[in-house]
Amino acid sequence: MASSRGFTLIELIITITVMLILAVLAVVNLRSTQVNSRDNDRKSDVESIARRLDSLYKTGYPSTVALTQYTYPSQATVVDDTTSRQAIFSVLPAGTLVDPLSSSTSSIVKATSLNTGLLSAGATPVTPFPSSSYPYVYQPISTTGALCTTTALTCRSFNLYYWSESTPTTATVVKSIYR
Questions:
Q1: Which among 47, 74, 79, 119 has the fewest CB atoms less than 10 Å away?
Q2: pTM summary value
Q3: How many other CB atoms are found less than 10 A from the CB of residue 164?
């Protein structure tokens, strides 16, 4: 009877194959966990931004922001005016205005279109459509229902769209409480 001194080639191949399968499963699971985490961060950020805007709508703005109570900021105030943006969102945690994949100081961009009414299948609710390039899109709406682009307009509601890595072709929206 011959004694065995090691593993056969078949045993080694099977062991290595099982280890590779487990490693691939671990990497795939890690990737989906990271995507879900970033999506949850985006959702939390947008909800924080919306709550802050709703709070200021009801209570009034800091003295450095030229807005009155019961109005939302226009695109010019939130996106273009860095000083006003900082005053409005100063109470939010650092990084709230920045997408988890971005290194910029703010990931909020202004909407360039306003689609109203029922959307047909495949219609875009906002331009630019939220994507990795435009993760958060702010769409303030005036009392007339038009896009609120300047501080001269009275903004009475807003839509805040955000991009999701897990569903990149669908824009998720958070709407103002006061409409």
A1: 119
A2: 0.79
A3: 19
- Sorted by sequence, the CB contacts under 8 Å of residue 135 that are 6+ apart come out as 42, 99, 101, 102, 107, 162, 163
How distant, in Å, are the alpha carbons of 6, 107, 126 from that of 100? 50, 9, 22
Helix (H) or strand (E) run with residue 179 in it: none
- Chain segment 104-147, per-residue pLDDT in tens: 777 888 877 765 544 444 556 778 888 888 888 898 988 888 88
CA–CA separation, 173 and 63 (whole Å): 29
Q: State the helix-helix crossing angle for 82-89 and 9-59, rounded to 10 degrees.
A: 100
Q: Cα angle vertex 61, ends 45, 152, to 5°?
A: 100
In the block, residue with structure tokens 């100081």:
105
Dump pLDDT digits (tens) for 39-81.
999 999 999 999 999 999 999 888 888 888 888 998 888 888 8
Is residue 143 within 8 Å of residue 156, measured between CB atoms? yes
Task: Give the CA diameter of the chain.
Answer: 97
For the chain, the structural domain boundaries read: 10-175
DSSP 158: E
CA distance 92 to 13: 55
Phi-psi region of 59 (alpha: psi -120 to 50; beta: other; left: phi over 0): alpha
